[in-house]
Amino acid sequence: MRMFMAYRFLMGSRGKIIFPLSGVIISTMALIMTLSLGEGGKRIIEKDLGAIGKNRILVGGDNLGSKDLDIVERLPFVEYAMFPQERIVENGNIFMGYSKKALKVLGINYLRENEVVLDKSQNGNKELGEVIYLQTGRDKRQFKIKGFYQEESPLETMKVGKRVVLGRESFGRIFGRKNYRSLVISFPQDEDGVEYIPLVLRELNRSRFSYDKVSILETPDVYKKVERIKSFVNRSLFILSFISLIVGGMGVFNLIGTSVKNRTSSIGIMRTMGMDKKTIKDIFLIEGLMVIVAGGLLGLILGLISSKVVGLILKIPPYFSVTYILGALITSMGVSLIFGVFPAKKAGNENIVESLKN
Questions:
Q1: Which residue in 19, 98, 135, 169 has its CB near the most CB atoms, within 10 A?
Q2: What is the layout of strands, in order, in the sheet containing 87-90?
Q3: What is the model's pTM?
């Protein structure tokens, strides 16, 4: 009975449901696009910008070597350390020396003599355990591929040459490099690297003479800027989602409110025939619910398609999750339904005499 009456009311005002239906469709679409493209964008930020702005500091000194690197990596709050100058370009290959801790970041426990790790994007045709020959100075050396990694830093990927990672002991023996003028120290992402600067400098300078002091060259300012960008993106996504939900909710509010106003006399007749307040309220609520469900499902389909299209245009791959999709659908429909409760309740409380006068 209630469902039938709601359907009849809805079909009787088909021209008036365009706005609320569009509102629910748009709010669901906007929510799905915001979540999927927003999550895709955040992943790009975390991967690309985050790769530029790692939580690192750069220290400098006249004569830095293995002893200094070992001192730093023994500190419990240090993720890894490496010498920026511990790299050489030979015959189109960029050889880089990595410490044991730095290798663990790449998922490699240890590299023996003549074992290497290659950038997967540059060596898609190579296989694990394969033997390769690389030019190192005047000689060609035999190396065994121990693993692959995916370079994430945009600045690093712009450099010309194939990246070849060696254990730093092997790098020192092959290329004869022992002393450097700067040292990169990386901290875990959830730590504040600035707080540890005094401790790092104290440990490095403990056994040095005054003329050979190690000093800070660069702090994690870029990393902090990246974190601020990520925070701004999160706030922007929240605001867009909130606006889209309000638009959909107001559409349903307007639909039921207008329907109640236009059918005041019908409400009076139904009341005189013995229909109670709750039944009348439910009829108008079901009318709004029909629009909400139809708009939600259409918005879901269009939102998925639009996310793909916009993602291709903006070069942002959307990230779809069943949890996100269901959450967006339920949230959009739920908020719209909440907005529809008040005018539906008002319909049930209409005065019989006043209703019949209209």
A1: 98
A2: 87-90, 93-98, 162-167, 115-119, 139-149, 131-136
A3: 0.53
